């Protein structure tokens, strides 16, 4: 979470996740909050849960995980966490600068840059 907040160039208002126990204890307890929920609450970030058994609501995340598996994890090996992080940084650089049909043949970084330019104009 700290890395995410450090890297994003804008204020995060809401985070959407599935109902995994790493994100919520909603289905185990109506009173006990997960560490993730507690941290979001401290940071003033809303937490939106997708409906159970609806993975298509997380479609972009699922596609991203599939592409990471296909283009990174199946091809790379790591001797330690430092090597993993170094190689992952390179993969993310490539992935975030790759043009995508779903983004009108722009890369995620191009689209983000355009959005930030528009925001600074207004």
TrEMBL record:
InterPro entries per record: Integrase_cat-core, RNaseH-like_sf, RNaseH_sf
Record GO biological process: DNA integration
Membrane spanning residue stretches: none
Top-level taxon of origin: Bacteria
Entry-linked Pfam families: rve_3
UniProt feature coiled coil, ranges: none
Signal peptide: none
Residue ranges of every copy of the Integrase catalytic domain listed in the record: 1-116
GO MF annotations, alphabetized: nucleic acid binding
Protein name (record): Transposase family protein
